[in-house]
Amino acid sequence: MTARSEYHHLYNKSAWRRQLRPQHLAREPLCRACLRRGIINDGSLTAAGEDQANARRRFLVVDHVIPHRGDLGLFLDPANLQTLCPDDHDQNKQRLEARGYSQERGADGWPIDPQHPANR
Ligand SMILES: [Zn+2]
């Protein structure tokens, strides 16, 4: 069972669909990873900044920075959300699954994922 199907019921919660997700997208309407590379991507581009030819991949993902692993606190924390394009979301997810933790760092430069080796 993948994490997505295991936790699918969380994404059906109205708190997620009606509040958290749209509110986050209103605050952060561009892919955060593309922006770091200097690409303004509202979901219509690939991670390389080219026109997204696949219409089914023209959207933005609201992703959890620290994997919530079913933890409602992390799942519903607005500060734990980031906007990603599908390309960056896939890459992020693959790296996460390979390592088991996020390498995202907070404002102080310290890794924020409790599963990161620096925090264990
Ligand atoms: Zn991106």
What would you say this structure looks like, in words?
This is HNH endonuclease. With 120 residues, this protein is mostly helical. It has one domain. The chain contains 6 helices and 2 strands, in the order H-H-H-H-E-H-E-H. It has a two-stranded antiparallel sheet with strand order 1-2. Residues 31, 33-34, 41, 47, 84-85, 87-88 line the site of zinc ion.
Annotation keywords:
single chain, 120 residues, mainly alpha, two-stranded antiparallel sheet, binds zinc ion, nuclease, nucleic acid binding, HNH_nuc, zinc ion binding
Quick structural overview:
This is HNH endonuclease. With 120 residues, the chain is mainly alpha-helical.
Radius of gyration: 14 Å
Describe the main β-sheet briefly: 2 strands, antiparallel
Order of helices and strands: HHHHEHEH
Which molecules are bound besides the chains?
zinc ion
- Let me know the number of strands: 2
Distance N terminus to C terminus? 27 Å
The overall average pLDDT, rounded, is 91
Tell me the structural class: mainly alpha
- Percent in helix: 25-40%
How many individual domains? 1
Proportion of residues in β-strands: 5-15%
